[in-house]
TrEMBL record:
This is Glycosyl transferase family 2. One of its GO terms (molecular function) is glycosyltransferase activity. Residues 5-145 form the Glycosyltransferase 2-like domain. The keyword Endoplasmic reticulum does not apply. It comes from the Bacteria. CDD domains: CESA_like. The keyword Transferase applies. Keywords: Glycosyltransferase, Transferase. It holds the Pfam family Glycos_transf_2.
């Protein structure tokens, strides 16, 4: 199987070399790796240029956007700049963050997953973060059937069916919901332990705290499901403010009549799926 990797990168001088080295060490190499240098103001450009000169597998795209590190739109917009320079001759495509270290067999295992069943649309491993004692601890705040946005692999057929990634907070949830809408499944592999070098959300702008609730509105969750999902997030993070921020973001999005990310039919499917999962966990 052939695959492409697209890496959005904004001020990643502390981590990106380790990420690129882990790609070079893969037992199954990608067809090409597109690194999108998104308005970096540190030495990211010089680091990736040195890799591109030495290894033809790396291709660089330079783009200019906001310097604010906001989740969602910034990273997807950069991803799409990379997407524009590749051809369609691939079996699966990978959106990869620039601050992770992959196990050497990562993409060999991902390829095996996709080859096992053509209805598998999204695949990935699990994120581990280093604690103060130097131990790598699992950090997976979502359900075990969710693949983190930092290392998502999509089969070509699934990626085309969901019409790529949405340029908004919540893109790495709506993609899985739409994949299921189109009868694709999501597969995770517990043995694929990915080292995430920067804790989730540490670089995000403070304005990002309301975007999760905004995303729930734009995914057509409805107010009740948004309340339940926000309460779950607040309990997991042990922060009551998360619940309030989410609901504020939801109400603001509704008041501003922000455009939805999914159609009414897709929204109906998403709500039914959410209720089904909620009821299953209560039994």
């Amino acid at each position: 199987m052939m695959y492409y990797i697209i890496i959005p990168a904004h001020n990643e001088e502390a981590f990106i070399a380790k990420t690129l080295d882990s790609i070079l060490h893969q037992t199954k190499k990608p067809k090409q790796v597109v690194i999108v240098n998104d308005n970096s103001t540190d030495t990211t450009a010089s680091i990736i240029n040195s890799y591109a000169k030495k290894y033809p597998i790396f291709k660089i795209v330079n783009t200019t956007s906001s310097t604010k590190h906001m989740p969602g739109s910034k990273v997807v917009n950069a991803f799409n700049k990379g997407l524009a320079v590749i051809d369609s001759k691939y079996d699966f495509i990978v959106k990869l963050d620039a601050d992770i270290i992959l196990p050497n067999n990562y993409f060999e295992e991902i390829a095996s997953i996709f080859m096992s069943n053509q209805k598998i649309g999204i695949a990935g491993g699990f994120a581990y973060e280093e604690d103060k004692d130097g131990n790598w601890i699992l950090n997976h705040p979502m359900n075990k059937d969710h693949v983190r946005g930092a290392f998502k692999a999509y089969s070509k057929s699934c990626f085309n069916k969901i019409n790529g990634l949405r340029s908004a907070m919540g893109w790495d949830t709506v993609d899985e919901l739409l994949a299921q809408y189109h009868n694709f499944t999501i597969v995770t592999n517990n043995n694929l332990k990915v080292k995430h070098l920067r804790p989730t959300g540490n670089a995000y702008n403070k304005q990002a705290k309301l975007l999760q609730g905004q995303a729930m509105y734009r995914m057509r969750y409805g107010f009740t499901i948004s309340c339940i999902a926000s309460l779950k997030m607040a309990l997991k993070q042990k922060k009551a403010a998360v619940f309030l921020d989410n609901l504020t973001g939801y109400k603001n999005a509704k008041k501003e009549k922000l455009p939805f990310l999914v159609t009414p039919e897709e929204g109906n499917f998403i709500r039914n799926l959410r209720w089904k999962n909620i009821k299953r966990k209560l039994v």
